[in-house]
Amino acid sequence: MKGALFLSAAAAVAGSALGHAGHQQHNAFHKRGAYGTAPAPSLEPSPTPSACGCTTKVVTYYGEPTIVEEKTTTVKTTSYTTKTIEVTPQPELPTPVVTVYPTQGTYTIPAKTITVTQETTVPAATSTAVSPGEHTYGGVTTVVETATTVTCPIAVVKPTGSTVTSVIERTTYVCPSAGTYTIAPTTTSVPKSTVLVYPTPASYTPGTYTQPAQTVTATETNFVYVCPTPTGAAPSTQAPPPPPPAPTTQAPPPPPAPTKKPEEKPEEKPEDKPKTPELGGGKKWAMTYSPYTDSGECKGALAVAADIALIKLKGFKAVRVYGTDCDGLENIGRACKLNGIDMIIGVFLSNKGVEEAKSQVQDIVSWGKFDMVDLIVVGNEAIHQGSADAPTLVGLMDYARGAFKAAGYNGPITTTEPMNVWLQHGKQFCNSVDVIGANIHCFFNPQITAGECGGFVKQQMDMLREICPGKDVVNLETGWPSGGSNNGKAIASKSAQKEAITSIIDEVGDKSVFFSWTNDLWKSPGNLGVEQFWGCGDVF
């Protein structure tokens, strides 16, 4: 028998308030118009809570163990029930706990010390973000080299009335032949992106576990916070023991190699160190993210957390955020930290002027979590959109650099413009940027097909390197629309989008930020009617 807890992130958000009243300024985002790409060669405080606890909705699934084969996986669900339950944590063990704070304010979770006197196996909550479709997850996996029987602990949820208790049971499973087996997995089909939460067995070894006091700022009603696991002797997920190996005769170990005094390295001089950290990496560096609903309202913290978890699941190392509205630094930053991915943050220079942009600089300084910031982008197509001239943008970048450096940020700073602006004004930017940032969209060149997109973007980036010699180039916004009107050889369709993005990944995915995570239905249709249809998260 198996069990799973199913938490729908979208359903858990009853609504969200607007964070920064200025967020509608982003209606100006990405009005690409006639892109000038170069031609292709040829709160009030609330009471302190005494403990963590939560109430949530779950779906419980039951089914049989199944073999996971190399080519196919067959999982059958025999029945399921839906219940509203109250999850009661076990305070005597150092397990993480979810808390829902009903009102805005600052809360303090006191320090806690837990002593475990004997090894104990208990159900621990495990979560995973999934995209729409059918998924198999959980269970205990073992590899056997011959037909054998394994016995292992599994976590089971047992509903009684309106309460669910997670317990550990031991199950015996017959592996009929050599192979990899997953015992007690769960399968489900979800209609939208969600976060699945399910129990897994975790063993806590004897020792003392400590958790320092936590201060939590709830920025909205029904604010969700995961209390960190107390640290100490680390918990381990149990797997069934493999069958005992056949006895072997061991050869005596070879004599140790003679030690050699390591050579002293010459002292590194300051001028030998790179001026800026290496940006990018892998085949998928980053994804753009705007925390808005289809109607243009701000998403709540839990909806943002579900989105960021899915971006991490797709294999991205960072997310790019354009401004500071919608409590984006707090909500997106918290979700990125939980998922271990970095941020590219922005100061958006709109037609409201430099002073409003400077207030965003101060928002970032007050936030101050620079250890998770890869790059700061001051201005997004500000000259292209007519929000500033080149001297104004340079002045804002220099102001921002001084403020960020004084606050402890020593990472790279840049701005981003399309190719035509860099060709016309780029030399004025060289002393103010650490890297060259550009938004390169091959769709707006009517001579480029989807399959040629990656090569075209690479050629544009090579041309940009000549503007500020010695400085790296990053493509801060790139993609292909799935709908709207065609542009010559550039076809706006889902199949073309997939082809174009595949070619970008192959050519320059390690230096590119893909645009955008979802379709931006809150925008106006824009040039060629494509502005709402750049969502590409489902392509990856």
From TrEMBL:
Highest taxon of source: Eukaryota
Keyword match Hydrolase: yes
Biased composition (Basic and acidic residues): 260-276
Main location group: secreted
Matching InterPro entries: Beta-glucan_modifiers (IPR050732), GH (IPR017853)
Enzyme category, top tier: hydrolase
Keyword annotations from UniProtKB, A to Z: Cell wall, Glycosidase, Hydrolase, Secreted, Signal
GO cellular component: cell surface; extracellular region; fungal-type cell wall
A GO term for molecular function: glucan endo-1,3-beta-D-glucosidase activity
Biological processes, Gene Ontology terms: cell wall organization
Its EC number(s): 3.2.1.21
Subcellular location: Secreted, Cell wall
Swiss-Prot/TrEMBL catalytic activity: Hydrolysis of terminal, non-reducing beta-D-glucosyl residues with release of beta-D-glucose
Parts of the chain that traverse the membrane: none
Pro residues bias: start-end ranges: 238-259
Spans annotated as Disordered: 229-284
Signal peptide: 1-19
Function: Beta-glucosidases are one of a number of cellulolytic enzymes involved in the degradation of cellulosic biomass. Catalyzes the last step releasing glucose from the inhibitory cellobiose.
Stored PANTHER family: FAMILY 17 GLUCOSIDASE SCW11-RELATED (PTHR16631:SF24), GLUCAN 1,3-BETA-GLUCOSIDASE (PTHR16631)
Similarity comment text for this entry: Belongs to the glycosyl hydrolase 17 family.
UniProt-recorded name of the protein: Probable beta-glucosidase btgE
Organism of origin: Helicocarpus griseus UAMH5409
Lineage: Eukaryota, Fungi, Dikarya, Ascomycota, Pezizomycotina
